Amino acid sequence: MRIGVNARLLVSQRMEGIPRYIYETTRCMAERHPEDTFYLFLDRHVSPFPALPSNVRRVIVPWHARHPLIWHLWLEYMLPLYFAFFKIDVFYSGDGYASLRTRIPTIMAIHDLAYLSYPNHIPASSLWHYQKFIPRYMQAVQHIITVSHYVKRDIIKRMHVQPEKVSVAGNAINLSSIPEENQLPERLQNKIQCTPYFLYVGAIHPRKNILNLLKAFQIFNSGQTKPFKLVLAGRFAWKAGEIEAAMHLDSNILYVGGVSEAEKYALIRNAMAVTYVSLFEGFGIPILESMACGTPVITSTVTSMPEVAGGAALLADPCSPAEIAQMMSQIAEHPFLRQKLSEMGKVRLQAYSWHTSAETIYQALIKAVVHNECP
């Protein structure tokens, strides 16, 4: 087969959730199926580019598709031309978008329906595009992939999609790619100064519930004879002004900015626990990243996070700073609990595999091609 892949978001080796999903699932499919050719359609030259098998080819499609108008033109007008030129049999789009103008069978991965639950957290131009086109994409594509059973139920309920049209292929961790270095880099050591700390790692924006996390930390820390620190690592995303201002009100709250993969995993390994108490997640990759490092996790009681944690994390109501603070106290005061959560997390991690998820996607691609060829 000639498989087209929407690789628009693969812009560097430092990949967050959706680009990582596209990269890892494509890599695993290409490794397991060398008889097929995978065409990555990108919107720019990327150097250095993440390593991929030899049956993966990169194709640059003009225009940097970051504004809704441009990505609409890129998907609807440019990609169909490239599909025809390269004689693509099936299209895998892992970023929640599709092309309504192509007749090529399409498998689309959608990671959540956050735009329906938290429309105020999304820029107006992007929200308009999501509201107008995502329902149409879901009707047009041959099959939908999503990352958790929570999101599958949400799609079926809100989008009136038949259950058999949706498959679950979760995120995972490529353990071989995790840096082995345990020691914090000097720039982080100088900031943290050997103080025990809780960690948040991820993008900084309202849906991540950072304000309630900051309140919870201050409640927790007020009861400690020796203060802890709360370290926040990640890029500022949209509508983060109030969060940024709140960070500066407590000297025990440290924002260390964006971090490399090596710095991220060193921070996780040395943390007392990772605090990931988001308001809404389609999956929640930092839960698995923490489990891979043997670090306990405090996460939310809502959406997909209890499903991903699978009983191997402490759960708190994300709207209750007092409850989050109580979970922090349990972690800080009970070494046996930390050890138990570490062991349970490593077992839970085994439930998620990039190869398993990639094979689910690949089987959907085959079915779409076979169905398209039937008279």
Features:
alpha/beta
Calculate Rg over CA atoms. 21 Å
Mean pLDDT over the full residue set:
94
**Total beta-strand segments:** 13
Structural class: alpha/beta
Low-confidence stretches: none
What percent of the residues sit in helical stretches (DSSP H or I)?
40-55%
How many DSSP H or I helices? 14
Measure the end-to-end span.
19 Å
Beta strand %: 15-25%
Q: Going across the major beta sheet, what is the strand order?
A: 3-2-1-4-5-6-7
The string of secondary-structure elements, in order, is EHEEHEEHHEHEHEHEHEHEHEHEHHH
Shape: globular
Largest sheet at a glance? 7 strands, parallel
Can I get a quick summary?
With 375 residues, the protein is an alpha/beta fold.
Report what the structure shows.
With 375 residues, this protein is α/β, with parallel strands linked by helices. Helices cover 44% and strands 15% of the residues. The protein has 14 helices and 13 strands. It has helices at 17-32, 68-86, 114-117, 124-140, 149-159, 186-192, 210-222, 241-247, 261-270, 285-292, 305-309, 321-333, 335-349, 354-373, and strands at residues 2-6, 37-42, 56-60, 90-93, 106-109, 143-146, 166-168, 197-201, 229-233, 253-257, 273-276, 297-300, 314-316. The strands form two sheets. The chain has a seven-stranded parallel β-sheet with strand order 3-2-1-4-5-6-7, sandwiched between helices. The protein has a six-stranded parallel β-sheet with strand order 10-9-8-11-12-13, sandwiched between helices. Strand 9 (229-233), helix 8 (241-247) and strand 10 form a beta-alpha-beta unit. Helix 1 crosses helix 14 and helix 10 packs across helix 13 (335-349). The longest helix is centred in the last third of the chain and has 20 residues, at 354-373. The radius of gyration is 21 Å and the shape is globular. The relative contact order is 0.12.
